[in-house]
Amino acid sequence: MSCHKAQPREIAASCAVVFLALPHTVAMEYAPSLLKLGVKVIDLSADYRINDPAVYERHYQIPHKDAARLKHAVYGLPELYRADIASATLVANPGCYPTCAILALAPFLSCGAVDRTHIIIDAKSGISGAGKKITRDLLFGEAHEDFRAYKVNAHQHIPEIVQVLARLAGGDVGVTFVPHLLPLNRGILETIYVTKQKGTDLQGLMSAFYKTEPFVRVRPQGEFPRIKDVVYTNYCDIGVRDEGTRAIIIAAIDNLRKGASGQAVQNMNIMFGFPEHLGLR
Amino acid sequence: MSCHKAQPREIAASCAVVFLALPHTVAMEYAPSLLKLGVKVIDLSADYRINDPAVYERHYQIPHKDAARLKHAVYGLPELYRADIASATLVANPGCYPTCAILALAPFLSCGAVDRTHIIIDAKSGISGAGKKITRDLLFGEAHEDFRAYKVNAHQHIPEIVQVLARLAGGDVGVTFVPHLLPLNRGILETIYVTKQKGTDLQGLMSAFYKTEPFVRVRPQGEFPRIKDVVYTNYCDIGVRDEGTRAIIIAAIDNLRKGASGQAVQNMNIMFGFPEHLGLR
Amino acid sequence: MSCHKAQPREIAASCAVVFLALPHTVAMEYAPSLLKLGVKVIDLSADYRINDPAVYERHYQIPHKDAARLKHAVYGLPELYRADIASATLVANPGCYPTCAILALAPFLSCGAVDRTHIIIDAKSGISGAGKKITRDLLFGEAHEDFRAYKVNAHQHIPEIVQVLARLAGGDVGVTFVPHLLPLNRGILETIYVTKQKGTDLQGLMSAFYKTEPFVRVRPQGEFPRIKDVVYTNYCDIGVRDEGTRAIIIAAIDNLRKGASGQAVQNMNIMFGFPEHLGLR
Amino acid sequence: MSCHKAQPREIAASCAVVFLALPHTVAMEYAPSLLKLGVKVIDLSADYRINDPAVYERHYQIPHKDAARLKHAVYGLPELYRADIASATLVANPGCYPTCAILALAPFLSCGAVDRTHIIIDAKSGISGAGKKITRDLLFGEAHEDFRAYKVNAHQHIPEIVQVLARLAGGDVGVTFVPHLLPLNRGILETIYVTKQKGTDLQGLMSAFYKTEPFVRVRPQGEFPRIKDVVYTNYCDIGVRDEGTRAIIIAAIDNLRKGASGQAVQNMNIMFGFPEHLGLR
Predict the structure, then answer these.
(1) Cβ A185–D145 below 8 Å, yes or no?
(2) What three-state secondary structure class fits A193?
(3) Neighbouring chains of C at 3+ CB pairs within 8 Å?
(4) D185 to chain C: which residues are within 8 Å by CB?
């Protein structure tokens, strides 16, 4: 539920979990009161995704107002942190670009299969990823029949991607991230380039890693997802092409489902012990 | 040329014809000074298109500031008023919807071939017809994958259409006009419905009327233009389907060329005695 | 369910109602066997929509193979024929254009509020209305950034519209129908022009007619639906503008839901006595 | 001019340069006869772009029929081979993806500024890049609202890119190339990732390299081209972001102009000694 008008106490009285659909930098003002009232919070903003308040301040241009709690928030990516989410009181729902990138890379970084210091993520998102702002850039006359990069290696989702990948890899990672704007309404597709040791079976690692996951579908060797495959679903589809010492990983999600509200519902299901796919199929 | 910054005197010194690319209600403040300096003016706004200042005020919500000159302005549709344009000092460049509608109907109304009291114009325009405003309606996320009518029988181009058609028909006309917004960048297509006497040969009348016109192309019986046929050109393409006592006329133009700047250049060529197609092919 | 591969007997054994999703001219070969086996049939093709086999043959270029049954088939538009559908064994699910046009006109023709001899339907449909054919016309490079009329007053849905409107009006109707192809995936919007007696309250008639209908939403005076309002729903949204002796009606549906499978489900619900909105909200 | 119907002798009689707009694998059947007649040929197909007939056969699935001439054909990229083009009798007009990639990389590979063994090209093209084939993939209903990779690191333009880059770099190059299909009509944008020595001034190298080129526009530090900047022009626009030991280069062209016919005209101008921009501005 959204909390724009209601006061924390009213909300707390009526629900055990709150979806905090507030803008970045505002969510951190509401969360503390809600948590104090004993409500569990799933925050859809970026406010509790970054562990280090200095990094947060650098990317969101405002000091964090609830810094002490950052290290207690659980990053709400069920495929990696399901057990923590189940017992969490504050879940930071991941960003759309990070969800797609991290799911594509987790099977390889968590076991050292690819070089963690040289990862290139070429990301493309539909217009809804830019929110509901009324700006010249988002006019039909500007975006239709156009395609462009933006915030080239300077997007605020980069520290979120780097933080989670580094934790998985057990060491610093080198990430280059370039987002682009597609002339379509919804969907993200990311083409990711990595280097690796000859002989490692990436396809096998990927399939094994997500074998039992309800919302990740790994494509057979040589096949890749397209945006049409995932829109209006909570799936992340992934395909791998292994070129010996290099590899290409292509992953796609619906930025508004698995990249936002769908994942929030998945997290809520886990927190309540509901079947994970409730309301998502 | 545009006159946003320059003063009338400077402009007058350097050119014999001025393209007044000013917003409606602003053009009428500049034109008088320019004309006094001996410059010819082609006004791309609506300020000099309507003869009756009361009608102007009703549709543009502002009293006309140069009302006396309204009856001297020439309506810049070369196919109908070429001789007047050649000797004009002030040309009111037609609106995009009116250009398309009037060209489609002129051959029939000027000779009484269709019922002037019952004309239906179903018009569809690309997004550029709405100008460069930054509004919610014109966002990619709003207009893409959508289609809608707007200003249903209440568009400010209606009095302009009615005035010219009535002059051609020699009596009052009854026009129903519904514009719609297409999810594409440029182009107008109008589907026009009329009633007629059985036996009148509309196809023949249409072909004869535009036989020597450089920028009107009449389609053979049974064929109709599409928007792709005319974008980036100064052509108006027209097709007719005669159903005995009823007929359908379909016409298409590029709203930014024949519906705006292309027609202005055509008018300038006529005023200077240049070949009419100069710069337009 | 689709019947492409299964044999009639197998189908009959397993279901009480069959959705016949077969191409026009093929459905009439399957329906007789299914009906003989005691199965109720909802035919999504055009094969049982037209009562007169001669009219069918003229528009579908093939003699009807089950002509005797045509007069027993029920036209599956619940808002008009709910009781007949409830007891029918063979329901002809309406075409997409006819669904939208008939719902927009029924309240007025059924009570003589508008001139039944002079109805103009300017229809616009998204690309999915053209089916899954692989033809040049439907290529992205052809349809994107384009808009065009097709089958101008010659579309095969015209006899279906005329037949139902004539039945409602109690006499011959005069319909002009021009379909157009929109550069978007789904949705139909029709702008309909009628003449009427001064004084008749069209808005009131429309609202009263659909007051209890679950899937028709009448807009308040001065408001009109857009395609975005109805896509992915089973609703038909309608707005009216009354101009005294003339009126404009604008209606919109999702051609794949209310214009096809959604309406088929609605019909099935009625035939089984289920809540009409089951599976449709 | 196209040669589909005319015979070589007829063509030769009337022109000094022939644009061979024939499909791949057909052009090599016509070129020898034309050259024998003393006509200069600009081949828009891929038939004379690859020097090694074995490589050609592997990628185009047909043995080369004019293999001896391959080493005499000049690669028609004016920015690199202007002098050779001026005196050439047979010019192989470059492919669209290679034009964009090679122009983006030439300033750095030709002087060893970036690592030639590790180049990643993430390419995105509008639908017209796929030609005029009537296939399911290119239907509006398939491509609209979709985005996907295709021929992942297996596109037939790869050997062309590799051959030219290797020649520039003076040694083997390692290229990963992934093309994607954009839901828009025309334009290519390529995002290219390279590694480099800290300290090298890429922006300076790029600006100097294209200082006098009429059709390459280098963006100032921190700015990048979008597809809208180059469609309907013969320009290649390029922007660079230098990250110390890595860099991102973004380049855009109109695939039908600088990526095809515009470049052919540019080559013809050079071969005739005309001003290079004749007909291209």
Answers:
(1) yes
(2) strand
(3) B, D
(4) 140-141, 144-145
Which value, to the nearest 10 degrees, does the dihedral of the CA atoms of residues C239, C242, C247, C248 take? -30
Neighbours of B243 (CB within 10 A): 16
Amino acid at B114: V
Q: Give the helix/strand (H/E) hosting B209.
A: helix B202-209
Residue type, D25: T
Question: How far is C-alpha B39 from the geometric centre of its chain's CA atoms?
Answer: 23
From the number of C-beta atoms within 10 Å of its C-beta (0-12, 13-18, 19+), residue A6 rates as: middle
- Shortest Cα–Cα distance, A60 to chain B (Å): 25
Q: What would the pLDDT profile of A182-193 be if each residue is shown by its tens digit?
A: 999 999 999 999
Alpha-carbon distance B46 to nearest alpha carbon in chain C (angstroms): 26
| Residue C241, beta-bridge partner list | C248
Q: State the Cα–Cα distance between residues B23 and C89, nearest whole angstrom.
A: 64
Q: How far apart are CA C25 and CA D223, in angstroms?
A: 59
The pLDDT tens digits along chain B (281 residues) read 333 444 555 555 445 677 888 888 888 988 998 899 888 999 999 999 999 999 999 999 999 999 999 999 999 999 999 999 999 999 999 999 999 999 999 999 999 999 999 999 999 999 998 877 899 999 999 999 999 999 999 999 999 999 999 999 999 999 999 999 999 999 999 999 999 989 999 999 999 999 999 999 999 999 999 999 999 999 999 999 999 999 999 999 999 999 999 999 999 999 989 999 999 98
Q: Which of A132, A138, A140, A184 to mutate: most B Cβ within 10 Å?
A: A140
One-letter amino acid for residue C188 of the chain: I
Strands C40-43 and C90-92: parallel
Cβ atoms of C206 and C107 within 8 Å: the answer is yes
| Bridge partners for D192 per DSSP | D121, D249
Task: Provide the token pair at C32.
Answer: 């007789």
